[in-house]
Amino acid sequence: MIKLKRILVPTDFSAYSEEAMTYACAFAEQFKAELHVVHVLQDLVGVVPDPGVAFPPPGDYMGELQTSAEKALLQIPAPEWAAKNTVVRATRQGPPFLEIVRYAKELEIDLIVLGTHGRGGLAHVLLGSVAERVVRKAPCPVLTVRPGEHEFVMP
Amino acid sequence: MIKLKRILVPTDFSAYSEEAMTYACAFAEQFKAELHVVHVLQDLVGVVPDPGVAFPPPGDYMGELQTSAEKALLQIPAPEWAAKNTVVRATRQGPPFLEIVRYAKELEIDLIVLGTHGRGGLAHVLLGSVAERVVRKAPCPVLTVRPGEHEFVMP
Q1: Is residue A137 part of a domain?
Q2: A5 within some domain
Q3: Tell me: the pLDDT tens digits for A103-117?
Q4: In a domain, B25, yes or no
Q5: What is the ipTM of this complex?
Q6: Per the domain annotation, does B151 fall within a domain?
Q7: pLDDT tens by residue, chain B, 155 residues
Q8: How many CB pairs under 8 A join A and B?
Q9: In this structure, are residues B145 and B115 in contact, taking their beta carbons and an 8 Å threshold?
Q10: For residue A26, what are the domain limits?
Q11: A26 and B142: CB-CB below 8 Å?
């Protein structure tokens, strides 16, 4: 019988990860698994400074981003849910798909729950590609969740 | 709270779908969901007859394939498991990814569990592309499972 001890749900704090969060929480509850909520801060390599900005961001820019991400993470999932279940929150820095796969390997994650965009828009292509790469490289099964699935239009 | 009432697991009777089946069964048990096991018979459109064969296959060729698929389906998942849970078995005919997505829509499936190849080989590309398309087009979340995940090598 399959045992899910550790479930990983990456979040980018967007609506796209909310639906995934709902599934991750349901699965964590059902299997009494630890829920790992991870936010990946993209590092600044390859980010071109804005032409209007004379200097690169100060040295603690990533540090500030991280502090603000850690604060935001404390609300996900909702504290009431977290109080009744085991939640591990973490931030990582690097290319999102790589950090997600790496985290899953290091922490021996049994299931990754991943939000992915619906159709249309450049954002779809971007997050779609993260999801695709995670599906290809993850050391464990991956559940992909699109927002607004199972939506029914009233007649 | 998420309710999974109907779980779909497509099978091509290969080892690649076995691991997916294990997960599908575990999830069906845990959520007390109906397990739909579906085999898609690829239709013969586009299949070029072998140069040595003078005639196209007789008219009941697909019928025979279907009968043999239905017989094989009766063993998946194992009858002992099926006796204690609700299992629906079905065959469809057409392009696999399309039939899987269509079945999920028609039967209001809540979760698709899909086996996918490991690395290497042409087969990887083929089944990989089925998985990718299902992930993109499915009306519900998709769990992709690779065989041999979480394998540990003894020191």
Answers
A1: yes
A2: no
A3: 999 999 999 999 887
A4: yes
A5: 0.82
A6: no
A7: 788 999 999 998 887 788 899 999 999 999 999 999 999 987 665 555 566 655 566 677 788 888 999 999 999 999 999 999 999 999 999 988 999 999 999 999 999 999 887 544 444 444 567 888 898 889 999 999 987 655 444 44
A8: 57
A9: yes
A10: 13-33+92-145
A11: no
* Total count of domains within chain B: 1
- Residue A132 tokens read as 């695709």
Looking up residue B125, the CATH number of its domain turns out to be 3.40.50.620
Q: Taking the alpha carbons of A80, A40, A11, A107 in that order, is the dihedral positive or negative?
A: negative
Chain A CB contacts of B149 under 8 Å are 139-141
- In angstroms, the separation between the Cα of residue B138 and the nearest Cα of chain A is 9
Cα–Cα separations (whole angstroms), residue B20 to A96, B40, B98, B125: 26, 16, 19, 18
For chain A, list residues whose CB is within 8 angstroms of any CB belonging to chain B.
Answer: 1-2, 22-23, 26-27, 30-31, 108, 110-111, 116, 128, 131-132, 135-136, 139-146, 149-150
Are the beta carbons of A49 and A56 closer than 8 angstroms?
Answer: yes
Nearest residue, CB atoms, A135 vs list B108, B135, B139? B135
